[in-house]
Amino acid sequence: MRIRPIMLIAATAAAIATAGGAASAATGTPQPAAKVHGTGSAGASAVSDTGVSGNRVTATPAGFTVTSTRTSPIGTGSVAGILASCLGPDASNYHAVIAVRAPVATQDTDGVVIAVNSAHKYVQCEAKGHKGTSMSVPPTFINDRLWGTGHLIEFFDSFSEPADGKQTLSLGAGHYTPDVAKITISYGDNPTQYPALMADGAFVYTAAISGLEGNSPSPVPYVHAYNTAGQEIYNQQTEPTAKQ
After folding, report:
1. pTM of the model as a whole
2. Which DSSP string do the residues of the chain spell out, in sequence order?
3. Which candidate in 68, 101, 177, 203 could, as Cys together with 196 as Cys, close a disulfide (CB 3.0–4.6 Å)?
4. What are the backbone dihedrals phi and psi of residue 218, each rounded to the nearest 5 degrees, phi first?
5. Among 9-18, 174-183, 209-218, where is mean pLDDT lowest?
6. Backbone angles phi, psi at 201, to 5 degrees
7. Contact status, residue 66 vs residue 54, Cβ threshold 8 Å
8. 176 neighbors 225 (Cβ within 8 angstroms)
């Protein structure tokens, strides 16, 4: 059963994040990262058949381990099928900006596609396997109501779900404003921050988490946002999300 904490994002920036920091959409060249610890998902090409992100194993004092934030791109053929399955006849109005497989699979999910239309409406379509189908029916859209403090980060869907190998998959996606240059995710009380994938105003994070005992809840993911100067301008741990 899915555990869906409230969290996720919004905007129209053209940056793409890599494990080293925000990257140029045109060149993909890593820029200096904000002051965070560890490495995480890398945003190679949003929709590509090649490339794999970085990987980091981090022990935490809270009784869990972030085993991996490694992602791999979903092929363009599968992406088209996923969007068609998720959006039906509206699929032709959307183009994918991020499409990745997660580091671990659940019964229903092993990846996610984020797409946007000409009106800058974003949609999240979860995927499983290479058959080009999506379990996200109806799809999850940004609702333009759940904003973080200062209206920098907009939240839509995220979840934690039991996965292969006695692990838990934590996956979420969202949308950010042009003031945001870098987004990272921390888990529970662990201060380590893992860069999220960022492209065309959307972001995605995934993590495989292990070490949870019995019915222990999965650690809550928290969004952190940084500006171009490397200053943290939003911290979900200390700043609430509010319906506006």
Report:
1. 0.74
2. --B--S---------EEETTEEE-TTT--B-PPPS--S-----S-SS-SS-------EE-TTS-EEEE---EEPPHHHHHHHHHHHHGGGGGGEEEEEEEE-SS-BSS-SEEEEEEETT--EEEEEE-SSS--BS-SSPEE--S-EEEGGG-EEEEEEEEEEEGGGEEEEEEEEEE-TT-SEEEEEETTEEEEEEPEEETTEEEEEEEEE---TTPPPPPEEEEEE-TTS-EEEETTTS-EEE-
3. 203
4. -70, 145
5. 9-18
6. 85, -5
7. no
8. yes
Segment among 40-54, 106-120, 173-187 with least mean pLDDT: 40-54
Minimal CA–CA distance to 12: which of 204, 202, 233? 202
Q: What is the largest CA-CA distance in the chain?
A: 48
Q: What type of residue is 11?
A: A
Taking the C-alpha atoms of residue 182 and residue 94, their distance in angstroms, rounded to an integer, is 24
118 near 200, Cβ under 8 Å? no
Position 48, amino acid:
S
What the block records as the tokens of 195 is 């860069």
Burial class (CB in 10 A: 0-12, 13-18, 19+), 231: exposed
- Count of CB atoms situated within 10 Å of the CB of 192: 18
- Judge if the upstream peptide bond of residue 138 is cis by omega within 30 degrees of 0: yes
What digits encode the pLDDT tens for the residues 29-66?
Answer: 223 333 232 223 333 333 433 233 334 444 444 589 99
Burial class (CB in 10 A: 0-12, 13-18, 19+), 190: buried
Alpha-carbon distance of 36 to 122, in angstroms, equals 28
Number of Cβ within 10 Å of residue 164's Cβ equals: 12
